[in-house]
Design brief:
By secondary structure, the protein is mostly helical. About 65% of the residues lie in helices and about 0% in strands.
Amino acid sequence: MTFSFHPEAETEFLEAINYYEDSERGLGYDFSIEVFATIQNIVIPQLPGRS
């Protein structure tokens, strides 16, 4: 299964990455990793017995 951002949501996401990166070096990167990890947890079906 795949996902895609709505164009406006993608723009907002990239702006948020830049905002956090401007606040503290590496924070924008960390933010993006967490967002993509969360999306992956939603998109990839959970295996039985896995929480």
